[in-house]
Amino acid sequence: MEDNLTKIRDLIAKFKDKSWYTRKKSAEEVINFGASAFNPLMESARSENDDIRFWSYFCLAKIDIEHGITFLLQQLQSTERNNKNFAALVLGESNDKRVIPELISTLNDDSWAVCAAAAKSLVHMGENVIPELMEPLKTANYNVAFWITKVFSRLGQKGLQVLVQFLRLKNKNVRVLVTEALAESKDLSVVPYLLECLKDETYSVQNHAAEAIASLGEGVVEPLISLVKDEHEMHDWMIKIFMKLGNKRVRPLIDLLKHPDRDVRMRAAELLGTTQSDSAVKPLIDTLSDKVWLVRKSAAAGLAEIGEAAIDHLIRALKTEDENVRYWVTTILGKIGDKTIDPLVKILQTGNKDMKALAAQALGETRDQRAVRPLIESLKDESWIVRNSSASSLKQLGSIAVLPLIKVLMSQNEDLRFWSQKIIADIGSHEVDQFIDILQNNDNSEMRYFAAFGLSIIKSKKAIEPLISALLNDNDEWVKKYAATALGAIGDKRVIKPLIAVLDSDNEEICIWIAKVLGKMGNEVIDSLMQALNSSDEKVRFYAMVALAETGEKQSVEALVNFLGGSGSMASHAIRALTNAGEAAIMPLINLFTMDSYEAKNNAVLVLSKFGEYYDKINDIYEKSEHKDIKHWLSKVLHDMKKPKLRLKK
User: Fold this and answer.
1) Which of 405, 512, 416 is CA-nearest to residue 450?
2) By C-alpha distance, which of 119, 72, 116, 63 is closest to 98?
3) Directed axis angle between helix 262-275 and helix 293-306, to 10°?
4) pLDDT tens digits for 129-164?
5) How are the residues of the chain apportioned to helix, strand and coil, as percentages rounded to the nearest 5?
6) Helix axis angle, 353-366 relative to 323-336, nearest 10°?
7) Which helix (H) or strand (E) is 530 found in, with range?
8) What mean pLDDT, rounded, does the chain reach?
């Protein structure tokens, strides 16, 4: 017991290691200890180190002991923002029935980050949360309703179906939030519902529906043309009227930002943006802390429309203690784009971790190519918050980030390698055509093999034919290798025949590589490889054996063992191949010692003697066996294992 506690504490100490892999692996090992890790985790959950606290919370949630979940739920009420944030972020890992209502309650927290973490946990828990979210949405305040609709938008078609139902509610504020959430789904099937919202009796719903439709991009053009007839917006007339007023409208609109009617404040904030007036900037920034979310959003829209004149004021506002204001400022800076790039990059490179994370978030909103390289560099930042924010922004940038990310896929920097692969995995399904284009048409062989490597991460079946073509026709060895790796990762039956076909290559290194790829595909390739053993090409027969050994499947190993009774090339190939089979081959080989064939026994000795890493296991079998022949032949194996390895002459 004491030994386990020592191991657990040693693993917990690694929660602050510089390497994310080490932190993650240590947490997983702690979780494996189950309830016995509870007390040490409760101790480390009070550490002053953020990483140790976070991973301790994570482990407590995964272990899912009642007292641990109770502790995490208590942290949702903590005055320490990070504790609340961490607890909200990990509670989605728990199956405790108390978690869902508490996470819903947390959506009303003063901290945007805590609300976002609670929403993320609810999304992580999947469709099971839908029934418990429906009633709160009907009665929720703006903040809670905002986050609930965000959650629904990320729960697939079932979540979208619920959102569409809520468009019929009399609560106009909920309808506004639903239009936003439907758009965030990026699902073009929601367009007809949003078009109906343009006929809504409430201006705010109409306006937000229009914004939502526009945010869906070029895909909405056709449904708009086919579905919209003689429709028009009264709000357009109001804009035209205000435009005619020129600078005369600025001061009255600023005064209206303090009006008791929130709809008046909202419209005033939006229309101030059309004035392009410097004097409107400071009042609009102050309005970002308005108690009503809709007014805050309208002020943000106004500032974004004012644009360059607001940049200096907005950057200074990033230093505010109000987290909600900081969130809106980053969104605005991103939407202004262009002139904000240089100052945001400077913050990303020299600010504290909170400022860096905000700058990274804003750069993602810019959709500007110039933001890509600084964000990639920030994937190496010492702070996880900065790395995560930079990764999220690179995902937002999508296609314009693909080429630079490809170039760092195999970076020697662990964080850079991890995040680039994770981002490509997340955006890959949308950008697979770009990877295929690089693989097929780029003159730079390094870019082609990076593209092939990227396709091994994305695993899109759309890439199968281009990858097969690269495997068979590309003139670069590494492109062929990674094309094979990608085909193996995709795992479709169509990839097996082309992979086996390349086993007759004159390049031994490629053949070994492909044999290992085939081996990792497991059971689904065994029949094809067994057929390849009948090939007239001896190389194909040998590498098919290597691949069979690599599968580690019982059927493969036993088939190879059966060849050991002969003395020809097939037996020789089987001996070489079985050395790659590892532990799965030990007992089938030892069973040969009970057979009559001297050749088979001798060949089994040749293979087993190369299994030095399993010396203890084989020795244990020798000690426990009462079979005379097994004892005799295993003694030869153990003796040969101890022989010094001779250096081969070149």
Assistant:
1) 405
2) 72
3) 10
4) 888 888 888 777 878 888 888 888 888 888 888 888
5) 80, 0, 20
6) 40
7) helix 526-532
8) 82
List alpha helices for 442-521, DSSP H: 445-458, 464-473, 477-490, 496-501, 508-520
Residue 547: name the closest of 608, 614, 496 by CA.
496
Amino acid identity of 570? M
Compute CA distances 343 → 337, 371, 483, whole Å: 11, 11, 41
Query: HSE of 523 in the Cβ direction (CA atoms, 13 Å)?
Result: 2
- Inter-helix orientation angle 142-153/112-124, to 10°: 40
Question: What's the CA gap between 189 and 176, in Å, rounded?
Answer: 18
CA atoms within 13 A on the CB side of 300: 21
Residue type, 543: Y
DSSP letters along 566-619, please?
--SHHHHHHHHHHTTTGGGGHHHHHHGGGSS-HHHHHHHHHHHTT-GGGHHHHH
- Average pLDDT of the residues in 495-503: 88
The tokens describing 576, both together, are: 């070489």
3-state secondary structure (DSSP) of residue 303: helix
Q: What is the pLDDT of residue 88?
A: 92
Among 130, 137, 175, smallest CA distance to 154 is for: 130
DSSP 29-78: HHHHTGGGGHHHHHHHTT-S-HHHHHHHHHHHHHHT-HHHHHHHHHHTT-
- Torsion angle of alpha carbons 395, 398, 401, 403, nearest 10°? 120
Structure tokens at 431: 């950008």
**Apex CA 229: angle with CA 228 and CA 233, to 5°?**
75
Number of H helices and number of E strands within the chain? Answer: 41, 0
Residue 90: name the closest of 112, 64, 67 by CA: 64
As a residue count, the chain comes to: 650
pLDDT score, position 245: 62
How far, in Å, CA of 524 to CA of 335, rounded? 50
d(CA 225, CA 207): 19
- Contact at 8 Å (CB) between 453 and 409? yes
DSSP class of residue 644?
P
List of long-range contacts for 642-647, beta carbons under 8 Å, 24+ apart = 643/609
Which residue from 476, 538, 541, 488 is spatially nearest to 513, judged by alpha carbons?
488
Its pTM surpasses 0.90: no
**End-to-end alpha carbon distance in the chain:** 54
CB 85 within 8 A of CB 117: yes
Average pLDDT over residues 549-570: 72
Structure tokens at 482: 């990674």
Q: Which of 478, 469, 483, 529 is nearest to 507 (CA)?
A: 478
* Cα–Cα dist 138/152, whole Å: 14
Write the single-letter amino acid at 314. L
Which of 268, 361, 358 has the alpha carbon at shortest distance from 319? 358
Instruction: Please say if the pLDDT value at position 466 is more than 90.
Output: yes
Please give the torsion angle defined by the CA atoms of residues 596, 600, 606 and 611, in that order, rounded to the nearest 10 degrees. -90
Most distant pair of Cα atoms in the chain: their distance: 106
- Residue 509: what are its φ and ψ, rounded to 5°? -65, -40
Residue with tokens 């002020």: 299
Q: Are 175 and 169 in contact (CB under 8 A)?
A: yes
pLDDT tens, 366-382?
A: 788 888 888 888 888 88
